[in-house]
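User: quick one
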Amino acid sequence: MTNKTYNEDDLIQLSSVEHYSYCPRQCALIHVEQTFDENLYTLRGRAVHETVDIESSHMLEGVRYERSLPIWSKRLNLVGKADMVEFHGNVPYPVEYKSGRHRIGHHESLQLCAQALCLEEMLGVKVEKGAIFWHASRERKEVVFTEDMRKQVEEVAVATHRMIAERYLPPPVNDKRCRDCSLKESCLPEVIHNKTRHHSITKKLFVVE
Amino acid sequence: MKQLLNTLYVMTQGAYLTLDHETVKVEVEGKTQLQVPLHHLGAIFTMGNVMMSPFLMHRCTENGKAVVFLNMNGQFLARVVGKTTGNVLLRQAQYVAASDANKAASIAKNIVAAKLQNSRQILLRGAREIENTGIEAGLRQAATSLSDALINLKKSGTIDETRGLEGISANAYFQVFDTMVKENRETFIMKSRNRRPPRDPMNALLSFIYTLLLNDCVSAAEGVGLDPQVGFLHAIRPGRPSLGLDLMEELRSILADRLALTLINLKQITEKDFEEREGGAVYLNEGGRKAVVVAYQKRKQDEFTHPLLEEKVPFGLIPHVQARLLARHLRGDMEEYIPVLYS
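Assistant: Done. Structure below.
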């Protein structure tokens, strides 16, 4: 892990960690190309976040709830907001809100772990666990931050940082990840992938039938 | 696929548009004439003296809906835009490509090839549908000169040659264009293509439809973050939406010319829809403009199978799809810009 000097202009969004681990091109489309297309999923996500994104702080039965809490890590060059952090005494417990249902895969856990690393650096305490809450299915799953996960977050943060600094746009993956991706229309995974189709159409351009 | 939403065209002079909850309310002389849910609209175009509340403009810019002010002839005056956003790297790549003679020439060449192909299809279709053998021969001959131009274009390299071949072909095309008119032939005879100002009903009709199409192409370019003024086939000239004009070339015949002929041949547009000004300029009158706008909107809903996407796309979304493909080419994802071929 390179320990470059902390430059506030070079910080990357916490959410880009999840985007990158899901699909580096999706991450580049959002953070390099500044693309943002709405689809059903992002609209639902926004509806959930509109109620969550109001910064607030309140106590309930000995637990302090911080909504939309600004967090950062100088070490990993990350900055962002945590949907919700519960403070059980001094110990922060991040909770990430997701609009959909529980999905397989660990991209969401990685994002949560990145939040934990930020909180550890900011507050100087160990953050062992957090939780993901799925709005549609009203499920809550606890995530324990393993050494392995922490290492992955660091690797992804470095790779994301490099990609954004170099303004690199990777080619499309064109696999099942693309099906529900809100950026499909900008990315055009199938079209770009299909070089044979390009060539046959470009050839037809100059053929007189 | 991105949804093709309606464009609201407001042409009633003195109309006032406001945001009422999640709807657009159109008032004329204090009376509500129309109320449309905002989520049904992709853009609002106003012509002439039509007013709009700031809150409605705010909401439209927030939601990425175009708000455009046109004069009575459909010419562009102003657009309400938010802060500069989008992909600065894409715009930079566009500027670099525009000043790179080879790259600009290759984009322009493909655009003109598609224009010639699509215009040829219109002529050949016209020839198939006509009973008069003399006219049929004329149309086929014009189609042949377009194919000759296409063969020369394939061999050509420079942008000047490309522009030259495009000019020659446009002349050949417009020389026979009005022979495809079957109704009210005496009204719609066209001596040549003229536009500043149009001096006969056919030129007035074509100019008006081209203006509508150009506005859609400019919006499409802006929608994907391209600079609508920096084109490849059309040279950069202050005030000229060169890229909008570029995107429009491949679509002129299939979206605009065909529509003009249909409107005339179905007698949806007749002599009474035009007015002649002192000195000889000819324009569509209010009734004529209304009929064209309605027909154009309807045409945009028709679908066809996009050859590259291999999926059904409404005609109204083609400018958007093509602007997107151009952006992908400029950002290095695709080797060439691939225009749309209609068959």
